[in-house]
Amino acid sequence: MLALRRLAPATLRSLHTSAPAAKKAKAAAIEDDFDGDDLFDDAQVEAATGGRAARRAALSASILGRTSVRVGDLRKVVQLSDSVEDLQQLGSVLKSWRAQGRKVTDQTAVELVGRCIRFGQQDLAREYALHRVQYGVPELPAHVFNKIAPVKGEAKAKKEEAAAAPEATEA
Questions:
Q1: What distance in Å separates the CA atoms of residue 93 and residue 151, rounded to the nearest whole number?
Q2: Is the predicted pLDDT of residue 126 greater than 90, yes or no?
């Protein structure tokens, strides 16, 4: 019993004093390994964007192949859409999602419309939002729908252009 009392304080003391020393040694090793020039390397940036495209392709394939089991996969595909072509391909992904009997969440619908607007594709956003049976996009909140709704003057100008176009071809 006496031997245990003598070992306990020494063991505790050595554990207590070695922890800060270990932290200092670990911090020194990390600082030695860091090279500030590699922080924003072009190859790393390209690999990160390539990773987004690969992730989007994998998630789209899982939805189209009906192997996706997570509700958030569709939203992630919308978030990873970084080009107009990606947005146009979302139509087939939305149709497949709808065919599986799944519902598009309200937040995913808002993100989809916002992404289309960001890339200047209001017509595409309008198509997704108005063809609910085909794409399964729920009814949008008024403040979001107003962003994609055609302006009355714009629709009138398009009708006038369409009416003037046949006259110009006849003359």
A1: 29
A2: yes
